[in-house]
Amino acid sequence: MKEIAKFLLNKIPRPMLINLSIFLRPLIYLFFKGNKLTDPIDGKSYRKFLPYGYGKQRENALSPGTLSLERHRQMWLYLQNETDFFTKKYKVLHIAPEQEFLRKFRKMDHLEYISADLFSPIVDVKADILDLPFEDESFDVIFCNHVLEHIEDDKKAMSELYRVMKKGGWGIFQVPMKNSLETTYEDFSIKDPKERQKHFGQYDHVRWYGMDYLDRLRKSGFQVDANFYSKKFSAAERANFGLIENEILPIVFKK
User: Fold this and answer.
1) N or C: which end of the chain has fewer CB within 10 A?
2) Helix (H, G, I), strand (E, B), or coil: what is residue 198?
3) Are 123 and 106 in contact (CB under 8 A)?
């Protein structure tokens, strides 16, 4: 069963899995219903989460209800517990939005929510992150998660995100990071998908970010909080929510 799950989760794109999960959600919930783990995004409890990961899989990583991963649940908890995102009027830009977040954020009447992506058919605006079609200082909040590792010219992408963020604005820019890696590992000569997966952890990534990712953001003008938000919770709470202890939540600010 575990090998079948591994095959499906790695062969079927997550957007398709999410769409399937919406259709099958009542059955999925009944099958996984329990009291061992809690997904803070849908507020439901499960007997287990699914394993997930390219290559070596992480246990209890993928929530069966929302198909959220550890990083999504950490972000949700941060927004819920540490910000006024769910109550204050904000103009929000969401680059390559996670589908579960997109559905929930679109329903929040206090947000002026704009989603953007170059290829997705479900976003509001078709946009290239290297040349965003928005005026300077347009957005109070920007989310850009697991996008920059796909972009060779990430410096240009970061400068565009900085340009369209309002002064006093903030955002969350998650990327795959290795905390043990001081300097980002990138090699743009590697084009073969299998080689990219071998070197960068996924077939369409062009780098593994190290801790200098934070300096890259700072050089683009942002103030950065390298927030290990999962550590705010006890070991039992992290296990309950399915969080990774040492995962960084990069929070950016424009002063």
Assistant:
1) N
2) helix
3) no
Ordered alpha helix ranges (H), the chain? 2-11, 14-32, 70-82, 99-106, 154-164, 193-200, 213-219, 235-241
Closest CA to 39 of 71, 17, 63, 14: 63
User: 136 — phi, psi (to 5°)?
Assistant: -60, 145
Specify the length of the chain in residues. Answer: 255
Higher pLDDT, 32 or 117: 117
Angle between helices 99-106 and 14-32 (to 10 degrees): 80
Q: Of residues 228 and 17, which shows the higher confidence score?
A: 228
Say how many CA atoms lie within 13 Å of 97 toward its Cβ: 23
Report how far Cα 158 is from the mean position of its chain's Cα atoms. Answer: 16
pTM above 0.85, yes or no: yes
The whole-number pLDDT of residue 20 equals 63
Predicted local confidence at residue 1, as pLDDT: 45
pLDDT level of residue 30 (50, 70, 90 thresholds): confident
Which has the closest alpha carbon to 205: 214, 213, 196, 194? Answer: 196
Q: Which amino acid is at 124?
A: D
Distance between CA atoms of residues 97 and 46, nearest Å: 25
